[in-house]
Design a protein that fits this description.
Shape: globular
Distance between the termini: 50 Å
Largest sheet: 5 strands, antiparallel
Oligomer: single chain
Number of strands: 15
Structural class: alpha+beta
Order of helices and strands: HEEEHHEHEEEHEEEHEHHEEEEHHHH
């Protein structure tokens, strides 16, 4: 996207959140009479965050907590910057701003009514892709965390938010922890509590409790949280079945019909068919998975693993999916080549801690990549799915060019 397109996307997000208001670009000192002034961090050319100007404590809190996808050095730098912003001095250097004037009730007004206290928001907006959505940190004017809000402004985003709302309601009732019915002070896995899910001015809002994490929160990357992954896998019970008799396989074999491109649909169907021939009789354990468990979607706080972004949660998937996703997605961030350019030959060994070896491990890797390919194929055909299309094509060709070995399903 061009710089103008990027800025327009952020402006449109603010216009949606302040209906009927005028949203204009401005510099410091040009916001007389404004309802809200929002400053770009670090600037409008490379926006990561819009923070409320003139409220240094809230701006510092937003900066300190908006750090899920940063490395240790970046988080440390973010923490130092947040401490400086809290003094109010660096705000003069934030020259790129959006000024909101006029209009009716805003998202801040609506959230204040829902949460029972005055609030301000900072706004994050990811890169252009099918699942992009505005993300709001809801803070008191003094910078106290109040809530975390995902905004569904497209069909894909609304579907993901509905899935996350269902997942959190299901998990809050079953996982031991401060938010569940089976409270346990020794619980080591905690998911956010769902505060509200509803529609406002044509936008779907998913309102969650804020998790106690920050820029310096410990996010171990080398050691996968195996015990917590087992806890989640078993949350709704475990079923052992042959692959071809599982609900997972039924859903996977039905998914090519949803692919609009004829060539991709046929190739994807062929890959599923060869996988079924190789592994259809293989018995596997099926349970729950997070769907996007990565080091940047979690943090430890006082001995409890806080895990967020539950949009992809699903039940009835093969054991090992979360561990493979954790390992392979992290490895791709440091790989020299593009994603899915080579087959992950060492991936089956990553499953050994779960007791998966031989054909079971080989099948699990292939089924995980098939599930990922299904996800990418459907997302890439969305109007803003363009950035995902190259990865989708590489992953599909990788699966086609590496069929299961003829004997890989016999070691049952």
């Amino acid at each position: 996207m061009s710089g103008e397109d990027v800025r327009r996307a952020w402006t449109e997000a603010v216009e949606d959140l302040w209906p009927d208001a005028r949203v204009e670009s401005a510099g410091p000192g040009e916001a007389a009479g404004a309802r809200r002034e929002l400053a770009f961090l670090p600037d409008a050319r490379r926006p990561r965050l819009l923070v409320p100007a003139g409220l240094p404590r809230a701006a510092a809190a937003a900066l300190r907590r908006y750090s899920h996808d940063l490395g240790p050095k970046q988080r440390a730098a973010r923490g130092v910057t947040a401490a400086a912003v809290r003094t109010g001095l660096p705000e003069r250097g934030l020259k790129d701003r959006l000024v909101v004037t006029g209009g009716g009730a805003s998202v801040e007004d609506h959230l204040a009514e829902l949460l029972g206290r005055p609030v301000v928001v900072s706004i994050g907006l990811g890169s252009a892709r099918a699942n992009r959505k505005p993300i709001l940190q809801v803070l008191s004017p003094r910078g106290e965390p109040v809530a975390f809000v995902k905004v569904g402004d497209t069909g894909t985003a609304r579907d993901l938010l509905a899935g996350e709302a269902d997942a959190l309601a299901y998990l809050n009732a079953r996982l031991p922890g401060p938010a569940g019915e089976h409270a346990d002070r020794h619980a080591r896995l905690h998911v956010p509590r769902l505060l509200h899910h509803g529609t406002w001015h044509g936008l779907d809002l998913l309102v969650l409790e804020p998790l106690p994490t920050g820029a310096l929160g410990w996010r171990p990357r080398g050691r996968a949280p195996l015990d917590e992954m087992r806890t989640l896998f078993e949350v709704g019970g475990v079923e052992r079945a042959a692959l071809r008799d599982s609900g997972f396989w039924d859903a996977l074999t039905a998914s090519p019909a949803q692919v609009l491109d004829d060539g991709q649909r046929d190739r994807f169907g062929d890959v599923i068919e060869t996988t079924g021939k190789a592994y259809g009789d293989l018995a596997l354990d099926f349970g729950a998975w997070h769907g996007d468990w990565t080091p940047w979607n979690m943090a430890w706080h006082r001995g409890v693993l806080r895990l967020w972004d539950w949009e992809r949660f699903a039940r009835g998937v093969p054991n090992g999916f979360d561990l493979l996703h954790y390992r392979l997605q992290e490895a791709m961030r440091t790989a020299s080549g593009p994603p899915y350019a080579t087959w992950p030959d060492t991936a089956p060994t990553a499953l050994e801690p779960l007791g998966l070896t031989g054909a079971a491990a080989q099948a699990t890797v292939r089924l995980y990549l098939l599930e990922l390919c299904r996800r990418y194929l459907l997302a890439a055909q969305e109007p803003i799915g363009g950035p995902l299309r190259a990865d989708t094509e590489r992953l599909l060709e990788l699966l086609r060019s590496h069929p299961p070995r003829p004997d890989s399903g016999r070691n049952l």
